[in-house]
Write a structure and sequence with these properties.
The protein is mainly beta. Helix content is 12%, strand content 37%. Strand 13 and strand 14 form a beta hairpin. The chain is elongated and about 65 Å long.
């Protein structure tokens, strides 16, 4: 069973151990997104995949990074941390998928990890734009252990390479009506006081500036992304304040090139925007 997400502070910059063969540096997000996504975190949640007592003293966690995978547009980049709680050295550390159908790149064996040591590596996984657990296996000198990697829905999207301004947002939105559009209303009193920051926290999308900028309590907010898959299906999010007979409301609208995913994203953002 996958443990619940554990949010952590950004990982310190460390030299990578035993990573990739024949690769260059990580490809950063295109600079055209810098103004729109300046407040977006550079990473998603950190999740503990295996606690140390489940894997003979070796804890394995992963941070969902929001940098584009240089292996494939359909892959999600995860920074994996191994932390030993043992007095002895562990050797031959390896993680691999349990199924040959799982597309994974980037991880080489870690030869050894000293007592209470830690190491950081990378894996790039193709989740096929689905929040379905990918079954994995950890092996080291003291045994082998099964675990699952369940991607948060908001990490299966990245800032769009097509929708980069309000004009392209409106154009794409008109093309994604009908079954590609999903919407709901939220009572304003139940919505997070800082909805822009909340959306950035839970999903790797870019905010799109509109001609009418100002207080989010009175003006609409726009966000754009694309699915981490080969088709790069567009995802558009609109949060529109409204005054109705029932009081102040927000209309939440999702337009998505993948109609089935659009309904999931609507529910995802609706839950994320609710004030705790």
């Amino acid at each position: 069973m996958l443990d619940a997400p554990v949010h952590a502070d950004p990982l310190p910059q460390q030299p990578m151990m035993n990573i990739f063969q024949g690769t260059g540096g990580v490809v950063p997000l295109n600079s055209q997104f810098s103004s729109s996504s300046a407040n977006a975190p550079s990473h998603g949640p950190t999740i503990i995949f295996l606690k140390h007592w489940e894997a003979s003293g070796l804890e394995v966690s992963g941070t969902f990074c929001r940098e584009k995978s240089f292996f494939s547009d359909a892959m999600t980049y995860i920074k994996v941390t191994f932390k030993s709680h043992k007095e002895q050295t562990l050797t031959s550390i390896k993680i691999s998928p349990q199924s040959n159908l799982t597309e994974i790149m980037g991880f080489n064996d870690i030869a050894s990890l000293g007592a209470h040591g830690s190491a950081t590596a990378q894996i790039h996984l193709n989740f096929q734009a689905k929040t379905t657990p990918v079954k994995m296996e950890l092996r080291h000198s003291q045994g082998h252990y099964k675990f699952s990697v369940l991607p948060p829905l908001g990490e299966l999207v990245r800032p769009s390479s097509v929708v980069v301004d309000f004009s392209s947002f409106e154009k794409s939105k008109k093309q994604l009506g009908g079954m590609h559009e999903h919407k709901t209303t939220l009572d304003a009193s139940t919505v997070e006081s800082m909805p822009i920051q909340k959306i950035h926290k839970v999903a790797n999308v870019a905010r799109i500036s509109s001609p009418e900028e100002g207080d989010h309590r009175t003006l609409p907010m726009y966000f754009a992304g694309e699915m981490v898959e080969s088709s790069k299906a567009i995802l558009l999010v609109t949060l529109q304040p409204k005054i109705t007979d029932s009081g102040a409301m927000f209309e939440l609208k999702v337009n998505c090139g993948n109609a089935m995913s659009g309904a999931s994203f609507l529910d995802f953002f609706k839950k994320a925007l609710k004030a705790v």
